Fold these 2 entries.
Entry 1:
Amino acid sequence: MRSRTVLTAVAATALTAVLAACGGGSGGSGGSGDSELAAVKSAGTLKVGTEGTYSPFSFHDPSSNALTGYDVDVAKAVADKLGVKVEYVETPFDAIFAGLSAKRFDVVVNQVTKNPQREGLYGLSTTYTYSEGVVATRADDSSITSLAGLSGKKSAQSLTSNWAQVAKDAGAQVESVEGFTQAVTLLKQKRVDATVNDNLVILDYQKSTGDTSVKIAASTGDVSQQVIATRKGSDLVGAVDTALADLKKDGTLKSISEKYFKEDVSVAPSGAGTPATSATS
């Protein structure tokens, strides 16, 4: 899934300050120093920030245009455990943490990868998804066979994602995009050489589109852990942790996982003890 750098965090913080100064953020529950859990319970609604363009996690069904996906189902299940309704607030990933800080929504459920930087800035839940990072290239391109092969290449990434940092650390020139769909488009148009993302995203893309012009060329070597993000100091994170524990215990997370991936990605694979630290999604 995705993770995203210090420069990004600074930019997000600056944007948050601007939004706050402008009175930005009409939604969200609670406030600094308040019980955000109590505010959510009182409102009867958990407002969830999510992209809505990141298949299979958060996207619109092509036939019905309804918002659906793995993270959409997980967010609803968490809200159910909290005893409240769920409301999704669709936001580009590069603005999603600024939106959280500006209280446009209560939590972010969008494959947020756990890393030390985010642990310092936000309240992060326990892990509900494990994934592996991969490098995708055009199928007819054999010039990249490892993460190190990205050195000197162009990689299309959302700037605030973990994967952008992974690509930069590997020596790639990062081309900014709004999301995975645009990244694949640039890749197929030969405007970039690669894109780094979660293996489940690439496999879902290949399965859902039948596109054989894009392949997984290499693994990043990271098993990353995805979490639900709250504001730093929010008491919501404890309630979310309890909800996720209940959902794991009663088999709900396993069921949602197998619905989308045919396997349980809520369970740690071998070697998943250390989260990816080089970046953030």
Note: Residues 3-27, 272-280 have pLDDT under 50 and may be disordered.
Entry 2:
Amino acid sequence: MPDTPTLITTLLPIATVALMAVTTYATRIVGFWLLRDRALSPRMRSVMECLPGCVLISVIAPSFVAERPADLMALAVTLFVAMRCSLLPTVVISIVATAALRYLMG
């Protein structure tokens, strides 16, 4: 049986990812539920369409001040892909590029 610090170290990242997934899903469902019968103005519709990009930027923003060269290179790849592709390919390519660069460069 693993000791308590090892168990916490193992379960904490899993719990964090699970909580993030639940929170993300809950915010989407609550937004849909609150706005389901309302007509949105063009300005509000534009704001709602920009939200996924804003969330993505908030996730990668700490990389702007990263000291690891792999993270800075992954950020450059992400910005390049984001200027040419839609959101989903950008996220997938960015994750793969970050993992590969961290593996190769340490």
Note: The longest helix spans residues 4-35.
